[in-house]
Amino acid sequence: MAGKDLSKDVLNVVKKKTGKNISAQDINKLASGVKPSTMSSEAQLKQLIKQVSNMVKVPVSDATVNEIIQAVKSSKLNPGNMEQLMKMMMKK
User: Fold this and answer.
1) pLDDT digit string (tens) for 40-92?
2) Which domain of life is it from (predicted)?
3) Does pTM surpass 0.70?
4) Cβ within 8 Å of residue 25, ≥6 positions away
């Protein structure tokens, strides 16, 4: 899957799951602050989840935040491979 196709797919998944439109620029702005270390830091992951939640104006409970963090930490994904993470998340 090419990068542009993935971006379009991500935007479609966000729209489908939340009913909210989000621009590619919004995603790029948020993603520009994500580093491989973000995926291994619980505090940084929590901050990222909250930023996404605020961006799409969909509240995320603390329990759900913790589930997402545990899923990321327990996965065998390469933290530097965001495309692999996005594909995994889009399947849910």
Assistant:
1) 889 998 998 898 888 888 889 999 999 888 888 877 666 556 666 666 665 65
2) Bacteria
3) no
4) none
